[in-house]
## 1
Amino acid sequence: MSRINRRAFLGFLGGGAAACALPRTAWAEREAAGTPVPRPARDKPLRRARGKPNIVLIVADDLGWNNVGYHGGAARTPNIDRLAREGVELDRFHSAPLCSPTRAGLMTGRHPLRFGIGCSVITPWRKHGIPAEERILPEVLARAGYRRRGCVGKWHLGHSHVRYHPLSRGFTHFYGCYNGALDYFTRRREGQTDWHRGHRPARETGYTTHLISKEAAAFVRSSPADEPFFLYVPYTAPHSPLQAPEKYLAMYGELPEKPRAYAAMVTAMDEGIGGILSALDAKGVADDTFVLFFSDNGAGIGGDNKPLRGGKASVFEGGVRVPAVARWPNGGVRGGGKVACPMGFIDVLPTLMRIAGVADHGGRPLDGVDVLDAMARKSAGPERPWYSYVGYGTKDQLAVTEGEWKLIYVGPRILKTPDPRTGGAVHLFRIREDPNETTDLADKHPEVVRRLLAKVKTYRSWHGKTCLLDETGTRKGFQAPKDWTLPGTPAEALEGGR
C-alpha cells in the first residue's frame, strides 16, 4: 500500500479504527509447504507489575451479524453494546462456518481441519473429539499460573469418552452440556438429559441461558481476589430450538414467529452477559480483565446476517464474519471504535498466550497469531491468507481471502476434481470494496482464480483424511447413555467428586 493510499484508507476508516498494513512476510513461502507460521518476533509476552489479568471468553451460538444492537439489529443487546462502546469492535473477525470447528480452533490455535474436526459438528452419535496430542487453551493457561479455569455452557468437543471431558482437558470447573441443540427447559437430547456439574448429572429447573449466566457470574464472585482466573462461557443461545421465556418474547411482539423467538433468546443472553460484567464490576477487577465476545458462526434459523451474503454452514461472509468485541482497559483495548484488521478464532489462543505471559505453549505449531497489538491499535495486523472450510458428504466448501481478493469454491472434493473451475462453482470477489459479495469477478480475473485455487487445494491437503466424522459412528441405532454419563467416568467422580 502506498503512503498516499494508506492515509486515504485511514481517513476512510475514521472513528479510531485500526488500519491493516500489508507488508510482505514469510507466510506465503511457509504456507505453500503447508507449514504453520510462528508468532512474529515482536509479539513478546507482556510484563505487568500487578500480575496477570483475568480472562473471560464468551461465545454465542449462531449469532447473526445483524442480531446485535451496535449493528442496528432488532434484538436489544445493551450489554454487548456496552462492551463495544467501552472496548473495540472487531469488525473483520471470522469464525469457522459451524460450531465444533470454531470451538476446536479457538481451543488449539490451529485450523481444525488439521486434526479432523474441520468438516462438520460433533453430533451426539459421533465418537471423536479434540485429539489428546493437541494442547488446548486451559492447559496452556495452567502453565501460566491460572489455577481457576472454568467452562460454563456448551462443550461440543467430544463426549464419547471421559478423555474428551472438559475436566480431562485442563479445566478445573465445568457446568453445562456436552451436546448442542438441547431443549432450553428440559435440557434433553436424544432422549436423555444432558446437563452436568463436573461429571455428575445436574437436576435443575429453569431456562438454560439463565442457568449458564448465573453460574458464570457466581464463578467470578467466588474467585480469589489475589489470583487471576480464566472463564470460558460458550452459550447455547441463540441456536435452535427457538425457545424463550414469555418475558422476552413479549418484547418482540411485532416480529414474525421465528425472528421473534430468536431476538428474545439474544436478549436473554445479553442480560446474562450483563450479569457477568456486573460481577466483574462489583469485584473491582473489570479494568484488568480481558473480555472477548464473538459468535461461533453466522445465524441460521430465525437470525439475520444482512447485509452479508449467506449464513451458517456457508463460507460466504454471512457464515463466517461474525459480531465480535473485546475489552481490556488496562491493556489498552478500550475507547470504542472499530478494528478493521482481519483476525479470527484461531488467533484466540496465541493472543491469550501473550496476555498470560506464555512464550511456548508446549504443543504443535500454531496457525493463529497474536493480534493483541492490533486490538489495542498499537500496530497493524499481520498479512496472511485466511481460510474457511466446511464439508458435508462428498462436497467441499472452501474459501481463501488474500489481500483484496476472496475466492470461494463449492463443489465435489477439490483434491479429486481435475479442474475445479469446471467441476464446481468458483466465485471471486474484491472483498474490501465488496464485503457483501455481490459482484463475482471470476471470469474477469482467471489468473487470480488459478493462483487462489492452488492455495485452497494446498490448504485442503492439510487434512490428510476425508474427515473424522466419516469414520466415527452414524445415527442409525444410536442410543444416548443414561444422563449422558460419559464412558470411562470414575465412580468416585459420579458419587461426589468434581
## 2
Amino acid sequence: MSGCSRILRIAERGLFDMIFFGDGSGIPNTWEGGIDAAVRRGVAWPRLDMSPWITAMSRVTNHVGFGLTYASTFMHPFYVARLLNSLDHITNGRIAFNVISSQRRSDYENYGYDELIDHGERYDRMEEFIAVCKALWSSVDADAFVWDRLNGLVADPAKIRPINHVGRFFKVKGPLSVVTSPQRHPVLIQAGGSKRGIWAAAGFVDHVFGAGKGIRLMAQQRHDIDAALRERGGTRNRSAPRSRLPTTWRRSSRRPAAAAASCSAIRNADRVTSCRASSICWFPSCSGAVGFAPPIPAAPCAKILAA
C-alpha cells in the first residue's frame, strides 16, 4: 500500500486526472495449455480487487480520480451501481467505471462458463447492464433526503422510484437503496475497439480507451467513433479516445528530457486524432507499472518523473 500511495501522490502533484486500474479475475492459461508460464512470469497476475484499495488511496489524495474495472458479463448491475455509489461518496465524487465484456477464457471458467459468450451477446449484455445502472443511479432524486428530525422524516417518497426493469439479461425492481452520490452518475469508460464495441461505446461512455496503435490506426478509431456517435446522436467530446503510452517511473538523470519527448510525441498524435486533453495513470496491478493518456504539458510530465 505504501508504494501505491507514493505513486498516487506523485500523480496528483503532476496534475493527473485519473488513476486507472485494469482488471481480470483469471490467470491467463492460453500459453501451452496452462497457467504455469503466466504464474512464472507474472503475466496479468496477481491482481487484487481494487475497490477497497481505492477507499484507502482516496485518503492520501484530494483531486485525482479513480477508474475501477468490472466485467458486465459476470457482475450484476444492482451490486455494481450500489458499490460505485458508495465509492463515489468515499472519494468525494472521484470514481469512474471502466466496463469490460472480458474475452479471457480463464475469467469465464471462474464464473461457471465452459466457453466464451458470443461476441455480440457480450455487448448486448453490457448495454443493458449500463442502462440498468443508469436507471438505478437516477431512481433517487438528489433532493430526496430531508433529514427532518423534528418531524421524523428521512426522505420524500415521491422522489424515490422503482425502475421495474425487465430485460433480456436482467430483472431489477429498484430503487437503489442509497443516498445520491456527489457525481450521481460516475464517469463511464470503455475500451472496445471492434465495430460492435465502438457502437456500444458511442451509446453510453464518457471516455474510450484507444489501444497503443500507430497514428494511422488511432486516427481511424477516432473516425469510427465519430461516425458511431453521429448515428447514435451523441457528442464528439463525450467519447474522445485516450491512447495509452506505456511509461516506467524510475530515477534517472535523463528523465526530464525523456518525459518531454514522450509528451511531445503524444501531443503530435493527439493533433492527428483530435482527442481532447486528459491525463490518466494506468495500473495493470499495484506493482509500479504505469502508463498515461495524452496529452499533458512537457514540464509537468518531466516533474512527475523527476519526483
## 3
Amino acid sequence: MSLSVSFLELLPDELFYDIFEYLSVRDLYDGFYNLNGRFASILTSLTNLYGEMITKEEAHSPAYRFFASRITILSVEHVETINLSPFSAIRSLRLHTEPNRSQCQSIQLLYHLEHLSVYKPPIKNVYYSVSLPFFVFTNSFPTLRSCRLNLIPFKDNQQWTLVSSLQTLDISAGDPRIYPQILHSCPSLVRFKLEFIRYFARPPKIFPGPSHTSLHRLDLCLNCTTFSCCQIIDLLLSLVPNLMHFSIIGSFSDASDIDIDLLAVILHQRVPKLNEFYLEMTIPESLASTLQDSNWQRMRQLYPLFNYFHMNPSTQNTPERLIIESKRRI
C-alpha cells in the first residue's frame, strides 16, 4: 500500500484534475476525501462535477453536502422530491420523473440551467394542473438550451411566451396541433425530436402561421395511426422550409402504409435544402411484396436522397421493416 501511495504522490495535480472529471462526487468523496492534505486541497478546488442520486437520502450525505455548490451535472434517479437550492451551479439536470409545481419552482432557482431532461411521466399517471411544460414554454428557465419532456397536452389557447434560448427539444405529443405552437414559441429551435403517441388525434388539413426558418433537424417517431403517413409528413414539413436533416421512425409492432412516390413529391416541394434522410418503418405485407429488387432503381430516381433501400427481414418478435437512407448507417 505504501508503494501505491508513494506512486500517487509523484503524479502532478493536473493529471488528477483530468481523472477526477470522470468520477462521480460519491466516488471522489469516498475514495479521496480523507486521504491526505494534498488531495483535500484538490477536492476543494474542483468544479464542473457530476452527481447521481439513487436515493433521496443521498442529498443529505457528506459527499453531497461537501460538493453541492460545485456540481454542474446532476442526475436524480429516484421519484422523491428533493431540495435543489444547495445545487446552485447546476447546468444540466436529469430527472427520473416529472416534477410537481413546487419542484418546478425550485428548478427556477437554478440560474445557470442549460439542459433539462425528464424521462418518465408523473407517478400513477397523475398529471399536474401546472406542469413542467408550462414552466419551460413560459421562459421560466431563461438560459435553457436543450430539453427533453414527456407528453405535452394541447390547448387551443396556450399561455406560452417566446423561449428564445431553446435550441434542442425532445417531446411526445397526442395532438399534432401542438407542433405549430411549439415552433412559434421557440424561434431559435434547431433540432426537434417529436414522437406521436399511439392513436394520436386527427391532424388538421393545414397549419396556420408563418414558417419556422431556424429548424434544421426533425426526427419524427410515428406510432400506430389510422391517418395517412404522407399527410402527416406533408403537414409537418410545410412549416420548416430550411430543414436539412429529416428522419422518420415508425412503430416496431404496427405496420404503416406509406406511398413512396408521394413521399418523394412532398420532399421535393417542402424541403429543398434537405441533405440527409432516413426512414425505418414496419410495412404491410402487401407493400413489402411490391418492393422487389427490380423496383429499387426506379425508386432511387424518385428523390436524390433515396440512395439505399433494404428490408430488414421479419423475426419471431418483429415484422419486416423498410429502410430508406441517404447515407449508410454502420
